[in-house]
Amino acid sequence: MAVSLGTYDATVTIPQFLGLNQYGDEINGDNRYSPDAVNVETIGGVLQPVAACEVLTPELLLPIETLAVLYRRWTSSPDKELMIAASGGRLYYMPVNGTEWTALAMPSGVTAFQSNVWSYAAYEINSEGSASPVDVLLISNASDGMYMIRGDNLTVQAIPTPKRFGVIARYAERIWGGAIPDDPDMLVYSAPFDPTNWEADQEIPEDGAGDIQQPSWDGDSFTALHQFGSQLIAFKKTRVWRVLGTDPGEYAFKEQYGGGAPYEKTIAIDTERILMLTDQGVVVYDGLAVNPFQQEVCKDFFASMNKAALDKASACIWRDKYYLAVPMGDSLINNAVLVYNTLERTWLYRADVSVERFLPAEDCLYFTSSTTPGKIWKWHEDSWTYGHATEEPIRWVTPWMDFGRKDIVKGSHELYVLVEIQDDPVTLYFTVQSEKKKKTKKYTIKPLTSQQVAKNRSVKQKRIHFGGSGRRFRLIIEAEDQPVWRIQSGLLLKSEIDPD
């Protein structure tokens, strides 16, 4: 923000728009940030509405409670990626970007799965008669046990395991299982390179399977497992454990400091750190300890979460952004998404979409929603490029401004702004609010006529005048159900001043 305070006027220049910042008293803060912004994008410092998400054609009759991707590297089929869905006690598959689900045949002796909530891990097996490995998706839950979906013939096969695992993960070429209802402090590992072998090798222990006990004596249990570089991170609700070593004789548990992961579905790995949600906000595990992560930047957001329903919260990392879906207010489902851009270090808030679970794929981010059970959605960003904006209201509010001079009345404001549109008219509402009242101006931007285009005319900058006065003021930009628009190069606001 650039501010000049002359003899007759005060000028505020906002060169770009960046994201949320709810830290401090929100007076005379950095005007590139907003304490109250919803349903906007700030791509490259440009303010525009968020892109509309897209509901896809295929639909299952019952809710999709697990969504995964089976990557098939060795298949001759053009469909290298298959989406796997769990719904109504069955498993289904569909090529990514496909239009129809196909039910997978149930494994022998099973008529329906007891749970539709599965933990999963991609792996490969060596199959007799096959020159190449077979890509598989391993799935497990504490009710049904472990199964394997083969990428070659798309069969579902049961894998006998010593325990039924609520969560699984791949680490040091073994599959690890935890969240065992009748043994909450146990982690079990398979033989190396063979996720179907869960037998111990008495002669060469490092060639066989085994288990590790790590009690905490407080009733807590392992809830999530994630490979993190050259180690396995085992999460409990109140603790985090680091598993080191690659062979049974070397395995060592080290407890980390700072707390655990009470909401395991919000855990996401961002290169050299792990982000996750607690009741106080997002925390980060950096390989040594768990610490609060920029909680003050979104303090109002975190204070408004429905803590009674945070077990529904879900998150993922996709293309350098952390997407966190949470229930806000009194909602019992996730009705908002907080997005952290790890490259720009900015936060933005969407209240126009309900996300139950995310599925990051190679080219797209998919999600399921409690509001449309049985359907899959595709996440979109950059509404200007995509061409479709949200239909929900948008808002951008600047911090309060008094220039540090409470003895000066500011008024007769002049706003200079350049709004670009595409093919349809757009109406925005600009408000200057003082401690006394609000002054709102409606501004409709129309497309250039064919004659203007022929004369190489461009969009004109708009000057909007606001009456009224006060000792402090702020600017509010709002729109409802509008086509795509954007504000580039920021804006400028001039005010007359009147010292006491």
Please characterize this protein's 3D structure:
With 500 residues, the chain is mainly β. The chain folds into 2 domains: 2-51 and 394-499, Jelly Rolls; 54-386, 7 Propeller (Methylamine Dehydrogenase, Chain H), CATH 2.130.10. Helix content is 3%, strand content 46%. The strands form 11 sheets. Strands 1-2-42-37-40 form a 5-stranded antiparallel beta sheet, with no helix packed on it. The longest helix is centred in the middle third of the chain and has 5 residues, at 299-303. It starts with a strand and ends with a strand. The mean pLDDT is 90.
Q: Could you outline the blueprint of secondary structure elements for this entry?
A:
Layout: E1 2-5, E2 9-14, E3 19-20, E4 33-34, E5 36-38, E6 40-41, E7 48-49, E8 54-59, E9 66-71, E10 81-87, E11 90-95, E12 102-103, E13 119-125, E14 134-141, E15 145-150, E16 156-159, E17 167-171, E18 174-178, E19 186-189, E20 210-213, E21 222-228, E22 231-236, E23 240-244, E24 252-255, E25 268-270, E26 273-278, E27 281-285, E28 290-292, H1 299-303, E29 314-318, E30 321-326, E31 336-341, E32 346-350, E33 357-360, E34 365-368, E35 375-378, H2 383-386, E36 394-397, E37 408-421, E38 426-434, E39 438-445, H3 450-454, E40 462-470, E41 473-479, E42 485-499
* The CATH homologous superfamily of the largest domain: YVTN repeat-like/Quinoprotein amine dehydrogenase
Quote the beta fraction: over 45%
CATH topology group of the largest domain: Methylamine Dehydrogenase, Chain H
Q: Under the CATH scheme, which class of the largest domain?
A: Mainly Beta
Number of strands: 42
- Helical percent range? under 10%
CATH architecture of the largest domain: 7 Propeller
Averaged pLDDT = 90
Unreliably modeled segments: none
Structural class: mainly beta
Distance between the termini: 26 Å
Radius of gyration: 27 Å
Neighbour order of strands in the largest sheet? 1-2-42-37-40
User: What does the overall shape look like?
Assistant: elongated
Assembly form of the protein: single chain
Main β-sheet: number of strands, strand sense, barrel status?
5 strands, antiparallel
Helix segment tally: 3
User: Number of domains in the coordinates?
Assistant: 2
